[in-house]
Amino acid sequence: MAFSCHFKVKFLLYTRANSLSPEIVTNNNLSIQASNFSSTRKTKFIIHGYTDKHGPWMIKMAQAIIERVKSQ
């Protein structure tokens, strides 16, 4: 029996340049190149589960991570 599952994964990019409003980055080179992503900087992922809710806690967590990395 074959099992197929398709998830609609979204990558929301927070950086120092956009710490309040994330950029949605897709899996194509143009999207990544047009974003504030830099492969020379540290990258952290926040994995929050299977809901498609983007709550205020995520913005606070992203800002806290950005501030923490900035101070190191």
Automatic annotation (TrEMBL):
Question: Which residues does UniProt call coiled coil?
Answer: none
The segment(s) forming the Lipase domain are 7-68
Q: Which compartment or compartments is the protein found in?
A: Secreted
Q: What is the lineage of its organism?
A: Eukaryota, Metazoa, Spiralia, Lophotrochozoa, Mollusca
Gene Ontology biological process terms in this record: lipid catabolic process
**UniProt cross-references to InterPro entries, sorted A to Z:** AB_hydrolase_fold, Lipase, TAG_lipase
Q: Which family does it belong to?
A: Belongs to the AB hydrolase superfamily. Lipase family.
Q: Which GO terms describe its cellular component?
A: extracellular space
Tell me the protein's name: Lipase domain-containing protein
Native organism is Dreissena polymorpha (Zebra mussel)
